[in-house]
Automatic annotation (TrEMBL):
It holds the Pfam family BPD_transp_1. It comes from Streptomyces albiflavescens. This is Sugar ABC transporter permease. InterPro entries: ABC_transporter_permease, MetI-like, MetI-like_sf. SUPFAM superfamilies: MetI-like (SSF161098). Residues 95-320 form the ABC transmembrane type-1 domain. Residues 1-24, 329-353 are annotated as: Disordered. Keywords: Cell membrane, Membrane, Transmembrane, Transmembrane helix, Transport. Belongs to the binding-protein-dependent transport system permease family. The lineage of its organism: Bacteria, Bacillati, Actinomycetota, Actinomycetes, Kitasatosporales. It is found in: Cell membrane. It is a multi-pass membrane protein. GO terms for cellular component: plasma membrane. The chain crosses the membrane at residues 34-57, 98-120, 141-161, 196-217, 254-273, 299-323. GO terms for biological process: transmembrane transport.
Amino acid sequence: MKDKTTISDTASSRPVPAARGGRPRRRKLTFDRVTFFLAFLGLPVAIFVIFVLYPFAQAIFWAMTNWRGFSPDYDFIGLDNFVKMFQDDVFLKALRNVALLAAFVPLVTLTLALGVAVAITLGGPSKGPVRGIKGASFYRIVSFFPYVVPAIIVGLIWAQMYDPNAGLVNGILSGLGLDGFKEFAWLGEQATAMPALMFVIVWGLVGFYAVLFIAAIKGVPAELYEAARIDGAGRFRMTISVTLPAIRDSVQTAYIYLGIAALDAFVYVQAMLPGGGPNNSTLTISQRLFNVAFAKQQFGLATAMGVVLAVVTLVFAALVFAVNRLTGGGESEGRKEARGLKARRAVAKGGAQ
């Protein structure tokens, strides 16, 4: 009788699902929960709708009008602006240029930034704990300095450095005995205008992302590097097999931000090549948009170009997310490796005892 009572009491103490199918009963909406959701969910969503979604919807509307910008009068013309835009050879050239920038600038910038970050954080002695090189703080400051300078100043400085007659670039090359570059117009030749522009953008942004990757690498568990070193992995192998998988989410985020900056690139291009370069070789969509709006006063058409640029940016971000997901990346893999390593060590210690 005693045993039956104990079993019954134990069974009655088990949690019984309140709803069918084992679903838990919904929690009541208390004042604390309501205020929490209003403060941390309702307010951000409201701000996002008011300042992001509504202006974008308004831009789509104005893109379907012939509004001239300085008059309240306009006519609704449907998709005529989009048809006209994709029949414009200059706009199509600008679209190809921004696609070229989005393809090369993030790739080159992140490759250099990762190289600098890995050298600073993992380039120390090959014996003992894994640590960075001496004077790492100095190198971080030096690499970050170009990002502190405003982009417009960077563009103006490099425009003077590329000057064919008195520029520092041609002066250095001529001093090295390369007389062919004595009066070479880097920004005046169609073959070199775009590479010269890309170099300036990379130079201005690589330091920031190097510092970003340094912070990400410092968050990687030291046990992973110690295990890799015990297994005989060198610095390059540790970078490929440990560092990159562990900071992959940071690389993805940086790639998206860099892609957005490259798709725009208005400040750099406007400072160095306000006319779009020789034969529009460096013209960007934002430059074309600016000229159509303020020089030709076709704000409806310019707004349509802005809508297309926004869509291209969203597609770029979606592609980066898709590639990262398809290749199985993420910081979770680094965490899994760390947990697996700790588990193996715990098992080894237990066996030794």
